[in-house]
Design goal:
Structural class: mainly beta
Radius of gyration: 20 Å
Keywords: Carbohydrate metabolism, Glycosidase, Hydrolase, Polysaccharide degradation, Signal, Xylan degradation
Low-confidence stretches: 5-19
CATH class: Mainly Beta
Shape: globular
Family: Belongs to the glycosyl hydrolase 43 family.
Protein name: Family 43 glycosylhydrolase
Order of helices and strands: HEEEEEEEEEEEEEEEEEEHEEEEE
Organism: Spirosoma aureum
Number of helices: 2
Pfam family, one: Glyco_hydro_43
CATH topology: Tachylectin-2, Chain A
Helix content: under 10%
Largest sheet: 5 strands, antiparallel
Strand content: 35-45%
Distance between the termini: 36 Å
Number of domains: 1
CATH superfamily: Glycosyl hydrolase domain, family 43
CATH architecture: 5 Propeller
Length: 327
């Protein structure tokens, strides 16, 4: 009788785990926008259903998500291919921000960075003039940062025998960079940025930038996304252009810390509870990369008095697995 009971407990545990896995969220290159006590998640949809573009999911607790109740689209689409938007394929790596009552969505399509806008958080996000931010050459993974003096900067990835992070001053009114300000952030210099598990050209991507106490913190991912050691680190500078000093204890998000392969390319945000979080994606399984799964992890920010900077780490035992609400 006891053995039957143990079997039943194990059986139903497996069923429960399987049910949760089917409800998991499969967005990659993820970002979360916080407004009105709610969280709004979007990212690269990969092979999921629906038209190419970006969709929103909404949550109050970061754990259970659903299409926003007041969305005008049943799939929660906020930007759709062909709806006054640039791009035919490869809709990746979105970021949402707000300025003077207008919401902006920057993203990648056709290996170009793009800016669209909307008067509503839920979209639809469109372009007045359809086109990329800078069509002079390929550039992906856009992140638009507003400095405390009101100046905007575009951080993105450009290709030059590898993927490298670049920064340029950005004019929000015209939606263009100032080409004369374009500068590479840094090179691949650390062992963790190029592990042998998947050989590739140098890759640094997925930027997020914040400013604290007159210092700039640039969070980024390194290694090829198919590498099990795809991971996240950060660098610090006194200027939006650098020079950047990489944190000595990088990476701060890695499979050895959060327990899952391919943990990278996400965004840093402050929760309703004032806790910092990092949202990112992982590989689908130990032997399969896609479709990639979404994860969140609490971030610890500590002041280093001697160095005069903040240090960041994550609570690797407190990873959140976001799931879709049961219908």
């Amino acid at each position: 009788m006891k053995s039957i009971l143990i079997y039943l407990i194990l059986f139903f545990s497996v069923l429960q785990a399987s049910a949760q896995a089917t409800r998991e969220i499969f967005f990659a290159d993820v970002t979360i926008y916080v407004e009105g006590g709610k969280y709004y998640l979007t990212g690269s949809k990969g092979g999921s259903s629906g038209p190419p573009g970006f969709a929103f999911l909404e949550s109050k607790d970061l754990k259970t998500w659903a299409v926003p109740a007041n969305s005008t689209d049943s799939l929660g689409m906020i930007l759709t291919k062909g709806d006054h938007t640039f791009g035919t394929k490869g809709f990746w790596a979105p970021q949402i921000f707000k300025d003077k009552g207008t919401y902006y969505l920057t993203y990648t399509a056709d290996e170009q960075t793009v800016l669209a806008e909307s008067k509503s958080l839920l979209g639809p996000y469109r372009q007045k003039e359809v086109g990329p931010i800078d069509g002079s050459e390929k550039n992906i993974d856009s992140y638009i940062f507003k400095d405390t003096d009101g100046t905007y900067y575009l951080y993105c990835v450009r290709f030059n025998k590898g993927n490298y992070l670049y920064v340029a001053e950005f004019d929000l009114k015209t939606g263009k960079i100032k080409p004369e300000t374009l500068k590479r952030c840094f090179d691949q210099t650390e062992p963790w940025e190029a592990t042998p598990n998947y050989k590739s050209a140098p890759i640094m991507e997925g930027p997020t930038v914040i400013k604290l106490n007159h210092k700039y913190y640039l969070f980024y991912s390194a290694n090829h996304f198919q590498n099990i050691d795809y991971a996240i680190g950060y660098a610090v500078a006194d200027s939006p252009y650098g020079p950047w000093i990489k944190y000595k204890n990088n990476p701060i998000v890695h499979r050895s810390i959060v327990g899952e392969n391919g943990s990278g390319h996400g965004d840093l945000f402050e929760g309703v509870d004032k806790q910092l979080y990092y949202v990112y994606h992982i590989h689908n399984s130990s032997d399969q990369v896609s479709p990639r799964r979404t994860r969140l992890v609490p971030v610890v920010k500590q002041w280093d008095e001697k160095a005069g900077v903040y240090t960041f780490s994550v609570k690797g035992k407190e990873v959140i697995v976001p799931v879709m609400a049961e219908k």
